[in-house]
Design a protein that fits this description.
Layout: H1 2-21, E1 53-60, E2 65-71, H2 73-80, E3 91-102, E4 105-122, E5 133-141, E6 144-147, H3 153-159
The structure holds heme C.
The site of heme C has 21 residues, from strand 1, strand 2, strand 3, strand 4 and strand 5.
């Protein structure tokens, strides 16, 4: 009987270890305390974005930048279900890295330094004037982030190219 309970205890311990191995360790990195000058949208709005899921990757040839697009759960589920209009609460983040030749294999490029983190947040009431999306951009230079001070109307105008896709260029990149 004693042995049996030891065995059960052993199995319980082992399986909890196995289970915990499948859980991501949350990234608790704090984002800088920065706000956009005009819209007051803050970097903190996307605190924890490092754990959002990647939905697409793009390469901007003119900026020589690799970009990962990440979505919070609300946006992720909507994109995965091919919804065109994103629900309120959707947060879509773009991280841009400069690239350089991989030292060990120069015909391959690898991500180098983070250049920017920018996001779009859906709130159809609050951001009625900009097609329901709030836009924010934070630029990283010399290891420091700064809120971009340009006019977000430029974000809105360019994203209007894809107005029929709820102002999103991103298409859900299937992994299989
Ligand atoms: C001149 C055009 C242009 C401007 C201006 C622009 N974007 Fe974009 N944006 C794009 C394109 C093209 C993509 C898709 C390729 C990529 O990821 O860079 C994109 C992608 C995005 C994405 C990922 C979601 C999506 O639509 O695919 C976010 C978030 C984003 N932009 C935020 C911003 C913010 C914030 C601003 C303003 C501060 C801005 N953009 C200004 C062209 C633009």
């Amino acid at each position: 009987m004693k042995n049996l309970s030891k065995l059960i205890l052993g199995i319980a311990c082992c399986s909890s270890l196995l289970l915990s191995a499948e859980v991501y360790i949350g990234d608790t990195t704090k984002v800088p305390d920065l706000d956009m000058k005009n819209t007051k949208l803050s970097f903190k709005e996307i605190q924890g974005y490092q754990n959002y899921k990647i939905v697409a990757s793009h390469f901007r040839k003119d900026k020589n930048e690799i970009r990962y697009i990440l979505a919070n759960p609300v946006a992720y589920n909507a994109l995965k279900e091919n919804k065109v209009i994103m629900p309120n609460g959707s947060k879509i983040v773009k991280i841009g890295w400069s690239v350089n030749d991989m030292a060990t294999f120069p015909s391959a490029l690898e991500a180098n330094k983070i250049q920017r983190v920018e996001y779009m947040i859906k709130d159809s009431k609050k951001h009625k004037e900009s097609d329901g999306w709030g836009y924010a951009r934070f630029i990283k230079k010399d290891s420091q982030y700064k809120a971009w001070t340009g006019d977000i109307q430029s974000c809105v105008s360019c994203h209007a190219i894809v107005k029929s896709n709820d102002a999103l260029f991103t298409k859900f990149q299937r992994m299989f």
